[in-house]
Sequence to fold (1253 residues):
Amino acid sequence: MKKSVFLGTLSAAALSAGIASAATLDDVKARGELNCGVTTGLTGFAVPDANGNWTGFDVAVCRAVAAAVLGDPAKVKFVPTTGQTRFTALASGEVDMLARNTTWTFSRDTDLKFDFVGVNYYDGQGFMVRKDLGVSSAKELAGATICIQTGTTTELNLADYFKANNMEYQPVAIETNAEGEQQYLAGACDAYTTDASGLAATRAAFADPENHIILPEIISKEPLGPLVRHGDNEWGDIVMWTLNALVAAEEYGITSANLEEQAANSPNPEVKRLLGSSEDDLGAMIKLDKEWAKRAIAASGNYGEIFAATIGESTPIGLARGLNAQWTQGGLLYSPPFR
Amino acid sequence: MNNQVSYVRTQMLAQQPPPGREMGAVKWMRENLFAGPINSALTILGAAAVVWLIASAWPWLAASVWNASTLSECREIIAASWGEGHHGACWAVIKDRWQQYAFGFYPSDLYWRAILALGLLFFALTPVLFAANRRVANRVMGVVSLVVLAFVTVAEFRLIDPADAAAHSIWAAILTVTLVLAVLWAVHIFAPSKLIWFTAIYPGLGFWLLWGGSVWLPVVALAGFVIGWLAFRAAQPFGGPAQLVAMLLVPVLWWIYGAGVAADVLNRIIPFSIEAVGSDKFGGFVLAITIGVAGIALSLPFGIVLALGRQSNMFLVKALSVCFIEFIRGVPLITLLFTASLLLNYFLPPGTNFDIILRVIIMVTLFAAAYIAEVIRGGLAALPRGQYEAADALGLDYWKAQRLIILPQALKISIPGIVSTFIGMFKDTTLVVFVGLLDPLKGITDIVRASTDWKGIYWEPYIFVAAIFFIFNFSMSRYAMYLERKLKTDHR
Amino acid sequence: MANVHDVPKDTFRLSMLLYDTRYRSLTIQVVIFMLFMAGIAWLIDNTVDNLRALGKDPVFDYSFLGNRAGYDISQRLIEYTNDSTHARAMLVGLLNTLLVSVLGCIAATILGVFAGVLRLSKSWIVARLMTVYVEVTRNVPLLLWILLVYAVFTEAMPAPNAFRPNAEGVAGASMILGDSVAITNRYTAIPNPMYVRDLGTISLGIVHISVNFLVLVAIIAGSIWANRRILAHAAAVQEATGVRPTTWWKSLLTLFGPVVAFLWFMGFHLEYPELKGFNFAGGINVTNSLMALWLALTLYTAAFIAEIVRAGIQAISKGQTEAAFALGLRPGRTMSLVILPQALRVIIPPLISQYLNLTKNSSLAIAVGYLDLRGTLGGITLNQTGRELEAILLMAGIYLTISLIISGAMNVYNKSVKLKER
Fold:
């Protein structure tokens, strides 16, 4: 494996120059490992523990894809990327997919030559302020000093929002979420703005969460989702349908606990198709085996289980499902049928 | 001339003790603290500054907590022991996470390999740095051996994660380390001049220990140098330039076309490999030291060539060298790191994919090479002109003159400068955080702070990392100064 | 005469290219040139292939610089809004880089000279204190200093509203330097220089420069030139007659007279910051990211400068002072005519390379979110437009230009003070 890094690369390069855009799926299979780009550490979404095991909401997507493609959710190499380096890491082939709360936007999908394969978290940009500031709406933030992470869509949204409402503000640019929290807590800014999920996670970890409020205004749409390189549709399909499988599994009540039982006895033919226990071989259509989705779901459970375990209400982050509930529950999650 | 002296003392006065203000502590204080009004004022100001610093830091330091598993627990302990609202240092975070600061995510059952690789570095350096002084060499090797053994023992008995422990033999690891050290000591004692061969194979060995995998990869890579030497010998009948071309071209061809295949074949015939560790597992000080050491070691030959190029009479060679050196020295390292992260993959052949650590090492090497070139140019310039002329007078050609007369002296003079460059680079390795690598200062700290246990911790990790950097760099800079003094007496 | 022959003029053979030292270097250069070009071609070819594979146009396209930037920059020297172009954002960044570099160089020189001289102080405690400062600062990464200083600013300084007197009329914090500067955890409010009369601005393409400022610079330059003439005249008189005319009052008058007169005429005054609403207004609010970066760069570089100054002073042998005294020079003149010119020759070249380092190190602004050249062009602009190749090359080119200008200045200086040897 190490060969791919050192001399082997050189020799392989010299020999195989010209086969530039080889299929990602073949690469991943040959490598026996999925390279997945994640954040450098965002509580709840992707964070390594003391032993270097990555956990989190985004991480679970990577693991599901690894399980579907390679049969083992542990065969993922997590590549930490910053807001600055993430797109090049994907474009250059350093990572096979990016699961790093990245907002799906028009220019990223087209001009930057990526394909967003779906949305794993519907988010929106919000503001958090100290309660004693006496502000109850983002419209009252005129003249405020606002902490904001650079290299994200949030700074553009912020500029647009204040422009639209004809207000002035002072941006304080910060590099990472950890830095932003510290700045905000120290009072270096009146408000901290980022995705609402991030705000909730941040607020939950404060020593005095009751003294901070998240303002009701959500000033942007932030559909966060995994993305792959443009042009390799085969690979894009695999990631897309792995994500859909996790969503559909929740809808049909397939959990990591009742997986086997559902596969064997479910009366629903779609469940059987999904889990590969019927005659139809969906896996073959995306060059995988029959039980790919079963393994993906087994990796860390269905969408609901992942949500509950990493960022849900029982975790310190305590996010409600909100928009991210199934469509049957009034949310936006809606997997196309597996047929 | 008047010989009459009106008064001459005939009797010696009994010696008197010096006045009180010229004695002991009073004298020292008068001379060193209160010599004149300006100095007195300075002293008082200085003392006030020291007192202020201690007074403002002490309450915080005094309330140190070493045993806690989360920040909130830590704050509770501080509140319970020193009263509500008291601020205190929570060193428990270091105690909890120091393995990550040291090793990143390197597998805990393989810590011994990282420790051994870094320890052996000193053994590899011994023939180069302490060749002249056997006593110093003994001392350095002794200390390093003990430290390595101690660290490995601690790592083996205390640090192994239960999850990794199953298929791991503590005694095998310790025995291996002891054996390696014993062999090196034997060489050092019985054939000290042969230790240089260990220096020659160290780059491959260090790489193998750190990254693991098949032993044949570093072996075939090192074999490139042997092949180059053989080509050099084989081309002897065709004259100097042909030798040079052969020496450069053949190994490059070997590395590009032969090495990968050879490693594969050898691996199939005699498979011998140790557990591979991916680059993503590197972090903390292991990462910083790996990048720093690899950067300096790889940049040395490159820097020498550049320095010679800059001194060359050939216009084109000189121009290219100057352009390269000035370009690299003219842009900030962070720009080069972003180049490594964002652009290097564009410049390399399609389909290749170097991992980010390797790309960073490549850029850091280029960066260091420009600085080393300037250091060595200083060394070359410091050599008396007569040395060049003497070499010419002996009828040596350019390469022989450089190899036998000029470079050995110039490099020797340059060692302090090289050590300073290394210190600078070691500090600069912290910048790799901006391309997503887990450097000890910000990368690991951010990860620690992203965990729910230690969210909100701020000063302690920085102070800890600063202390480690200080210890490393301060001792290296002292060593550079020692060398400078020593080399000065040699030359003047 | 007859025994000395010219070297026989052989006919040219191909092997001479390799074996004849007259041609060999040419051969080698041609080969190296070809290899170099081949290498460049290889890199370009790879780049083009890679860009094609990604579906990007393999041509340099800097048109993105003309697009709307869309982001805000809080610390700026020139007018900029989020409707401005990326090119203007780049310019704001470049000026920010230059701003922190120039401020840093000035402060680091002052602090470094102090520390270097104090390190040689007779006062034991001060000398030790400076040694500790120098060693601790030099041996710890700059990034750490930047983060620490930034943390000190945000954690230890009072919030702006702490300056407001509470119910009992006691404020939690107070302004310093005669109520003109307020250090808060967001920014440092300093007085704003203002003119009553305004000569307007002239616009040079995308840059608008205040005429007041231009006139001021012109006047200062003129004063310095006039002062030089006065000194040259005095030197000429001294050469001719042996008596140097008194010049200090003339110098003072020429140097400061016109400037003061101009400022008075224009109605120059300082507008002091005042707490209005939640924040200070009236003065200039310097963001803490700039302050932290500036202070950290200053502290770090000053430690290196201190060592340079110390080495420079120690390099001058005591005999020089003694010789000057023996010639009857007074201590002041000894310092200015004998010691300093020699010490400066040792000090200035490494000092300028420290300036160069400081300028390059200012790119660590990324750590505190100060939007310098790297933060705008190489950061947000790059990230928004996805033009990494163009952006990074342009950024490297700009940094390189700055560096070359600084090292060019150093070379000019080195030439001018080079020992005139026999």
Q: What stands out?
A: The first helix of chain C runs from residue 16 to 19. The beta strands of chain C are 182-183, 187-190, 192-194, 201-204, 207-210, 269-271, 274-276, 279-281, 284-287. Chain C has a mean pLDDT of 83.
